[in-house]
Amino acid sequence: MSNTLDKYQEKIGCFIQIPNIGRGQVKYVGTVDAKPGHYAGIDLLANIGKNDGSFNGRKYFDTEYPKSGLFIQLNKVANLIENATISRRNTLLPQNEQLSRNNSLGSVSKNQKSNVLVTRHSLTEQKSPTPVRTSRTSSNRNVQIVSNIDYRLQDHNDDLMDIDTPSSAPRSTNEIFQNINVIREYELKVEKQQRKIIEYERLLNDQRIVLEEIQPTIDACENNIREIEQERDQLKAQLDHEREQQKKQKQYFETEHEQLLEVVTQLHQEITENERRIAEEKKQQASAATSTTTNIELEALNQELDELRKYKDETEYAKKKWDKEKEQLRMHNESLSKEYQALNKELLSMSNSSNSDDKLKKEILQLKEDLNLAHNRIDELTKSTTNTGALQELQEENIPQSLPLYEPEKKIDAAAGRKLWCVLCEKSGHEQIDCPFQYGDNACSNDANSNEPLYF
């Protein structure tokens, strides 16, 4: 296990691309207090981590930002660490700078030219650990500076190859020192620009990580916006079509209205002319004797006048109907305009609809709970209804079908207490069977001896 850790220890400082997280630099490999197994400490180079490289009060590694550190189990990123390479930025730059400074303090012959070449080599070999875009203007400016240095050194070497007189020796020495100062100034400028490039690359890497995190949200928002814009365009096209149709109908109705007005005006003129002619004819008829011909013509004129009045009424009715249709079209246009405005407001309020979705979900859960309670209550009532029905059937089985009839010991006479009445003689006091007048002889003797009339 120690050999494996040593293998990963050699990879400290390399950059890896972690899926769904982003790019980071390996800064620690080993154990963590109170945690089983081995962990890798990653610096994400942006405030998207969990800590600053410490856990439970112990510092394991340093981070670029307060919240850019992250501990990950080693087995999850082992393949990424094995395939990663250590950045050459931190290893090549100090050596090249030291080499350029040492060479600049040496002789001013071929060593100066080699110093410039080494500086150029250091600028070209430095690579960014992150695949970000570099500034073309800064690199072009560095190439131009190095070419100027080469040009001046070439001129200076040509001067050294010539044989100067003793009077010209101080001048060439001054030029040498001036060239050395120029080289130093260029070296400082190159170092500043290189530091700026490193800083820009780091900022670009941070921005790239943030962009990768928010890219899915941006894509989803763009898709929603495109769908809403398509729907808006469709509604706009439909509204334009409706407006065009309404415009055509309006123009048609206006033309028809003008024609109806012209017809009504002509009818009024004809009615006036007919009334004037009828009045003249009436005057003529009043002055002269009326004949059958004039009567027929008068009736025809009256009939024509009635037809003209009827046609006038029909045209006025058509005018009123057209006015109603015009008002309906205007109201329909207003409703379409309101619907279009409402859709625009809905488009603006799409970003704030997440809170309403949460409220709707809560209401749906509450309604489901109420529905379950109602189902349980229905089941309980069904069971109780079944029990009461069985009890009622048991009670009905125990109840007899009917009670026995009551029979008295002596029969009751329904006519008891009433007066006797005879149907034959229509007298009270006896019944028909005991009537003395049912035989003829007795009836005669009784009539003779009786003072009462037979009929009364």
TrEMBL record:
The keyword Cell membrane does not apply. It holds the Pfam family CAP_GLY. Transmembrane segments: none annotated. Keywords: Coiled coil. One of its GO terms (biological process) is negative regulation of microtubule polymerization. PANTHER family: DYNACTIN 1-RELATED MICROTUBULE-BINDING, NUCLEAR FUSION PROTEIN BIK1. This is CAP-Gly domain-containing protein. It comes from Kazachstania africana (strain ATCC 22294 / BCRC 22015 / CBS 2517 / CECT 1963 / NBRC 1671 / NRRL Y-8276) (Yeast).
